[in-house]
Amino acid sequence: MCKKIASRFPPNVDAHLRPPGLILNRPVNPFLQNANPNPNLIQQANNFQQQQQMMMMMMQQQQQQQQKQQKLMRPSNQLEIQFAYQDAWRVCHPDFKRPFASLEDACERLLK
């Protein structure tokens, strides 16, 4: 009767109760059994690592160039920020109390 009941459950139903490191009926990875690894796979792995290193170096160089460009742009950037604040203030506080001299004056004061 116990065999009949046990056959209803999968074999790994008590896997959480087993001590760590004990693995039963685990399929063996054929790649790990090979004592002599494929030299082509080793070469491909080395090439891949070299490509990754080159990409990392290129990315670091690009970041350094961007940082240098940002440092060079800072003085003019401060002026642009000041103009942006002035424009934002004018948008929030349009000058509509004085009469407009022309269409251009209206556009300048209301749309800028």
Q: Any overview of this molecule?
A:
InterPro entries: Chromatin_remod/trans_coact, GSCR1_dom. It comes from Arabidopsis thaliana x Arabidopsis arenosa. Residues 87-111 form the GLTSCR protein conserved domain. By secondary structure, the protein is mostly helical. Helices cover 64% and strands 0% of the residues. The chain has a domain at 75-112. The chain contains four helices and no strands. It is elongated, with a radius of gyration of 36 Å. The mean pLDDT is 77.
Lay out the secondary structure.
Elements: H1 2-6, H2 30-33, H3 39-92, H4 103-111
GO cellular component, one term: SWI/SNF complex
Domain GLTSCR protein conserved: 87-111
Organism: Arabidopsis thaliana x Arabidopsis arenosa
